[in-house]
Amino acid sequence: STGVKQEQLSEIIKMTIDKLQECGLLPKFLVCDQGSSNRGAVKRLGADVEHPFFTHNHAKIFCLYDVPHLFKSFRNNLLNGHYMLNGNVITIDDIRKTYNI
Fold it and tell me: Fewest Cβ atoms closer than 10 Å to its Cβ: which of 13, 65, 70, 86?
């Protein structure tokens, strides 16, 4: 891959937060897509499913995946298979039937 490595990206994120804070801004969220470098950087910063935030300069920064990409990923996964939710199988046909109601 020719993209930024997760180690570099996590450092860039911290430096960016530093610069924003120096300007008097108080960032509260980090929003990104679910690319492997982004997921790795978020993990390196200390955020996970149980604690979806990290702390930098005593500030809590929450991490979010952008919603359009979440919908796209959900759709792609449904096209390639199905989900289990509370013991029930959810397929792309369920979505199509709901849309046609």
Answer: 86
The answer to whether 44 and 8 are in contact (CB under 8 A) is no
pLDDT value of position 3: 85
| Mean per-residue pLDDT, 53-67 | 96
pTM over 0.90: no
| Phi, psi for 65 (deg, rounded to 5) | -90, 140
| Distances 90 to 72, 74, 93, 94, 97 between C-alpha atoms, Å | 16, 11, 8, 6, 11
> 61 CB contacts (<8 Å, ≥6 apart)?
17, 27, 28, 29, 30, 45, 53, 54, 55
| Separation of alpha carbons 54 and 72, rounded Å | 26
Select the more confidently predicted residue: 45 or 71: 45
